[in-house]
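Per your request, structure below.
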């Protein structure tokens, strides 16, 4: 289990720091820092594995985190932890290209970010550009990212098949519901959802 790997890497890093002498010489500090860095890199890899298993890609994780914290100032450290990749800022730029109003509050590497809207306009959410913005990953990963982009608006069968890139997309949606725990509704669950359409009801899994 990757959580166990994460715990071990952090404990190993802590043990190295605790074993360090109070008065470190420069060379001793370099050796200590390199060992700590190795374990911190392992912890990042473990975070990424857990994120991938639960949510999919880093962009999906960032989108969900922003949408769960609209209007809040989120630090780079928080966002890097959520994304579990070094290139997290690039994923935020990609979210902006889709249409998300994500503002950088200030300048410099420590400047926080803020999502200024709680959802996309329906026209933007259902646009061709939004569909085309969904990249790699498995069909299930592409579907949940798309549904996260457009929620609370419903997605048509045509949109979902194009995003999933497979005619078995309904099976993928069912697995997101049954195995992933995502709250996705169809017309059978809510008459307000058009027949054949699916909607991510809330941002919890």
């Amino acid at each position: 289990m990757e959580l166990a790997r994460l715990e071990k890497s952090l404990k190993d890093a802590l043990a190295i720091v605790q074993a360090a002498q109070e008065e470190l010489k420069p060379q001793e500090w370099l050796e200590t820092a390199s060992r700590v860095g190795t374990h911190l890199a392992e912890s990042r890899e473990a975070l990424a594995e857990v994120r991938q298993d639960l949510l999919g890609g880093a962009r999906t994780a960032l989108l969900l985190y922003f949408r769960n914290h609209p209007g809040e100032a989120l630090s780079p450290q928080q966002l890097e932890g959520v994304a579990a990749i070094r290139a997290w800022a690039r994923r935020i730029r990609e979210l902006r290209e889709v249409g998300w109003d994500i503002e950088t509050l200030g300048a410099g590497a420590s400047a926080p970010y803020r999502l200024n809207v709680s959802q996309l306009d329906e026209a933007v959410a259902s646009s061709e550009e939004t569909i085309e913005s969904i990249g790699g990953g498995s069909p299930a990963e592409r579907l949940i990212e798309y549904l996260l982009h457009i929620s609370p608006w419903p997605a048509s069968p045509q949109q979902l098949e194009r995003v999933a890139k497979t005619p078995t997309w309904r099976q993928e949606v069912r697995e997101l519901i049954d195995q992933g725990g995502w709250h996705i509704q169809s017309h059978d669950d809510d008459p307000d959802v058009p027949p054949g359409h699916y909607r991510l009801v809330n941002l919890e899994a």
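Residues 26-54 form the longest helix (29 residues).

Regards,
D.
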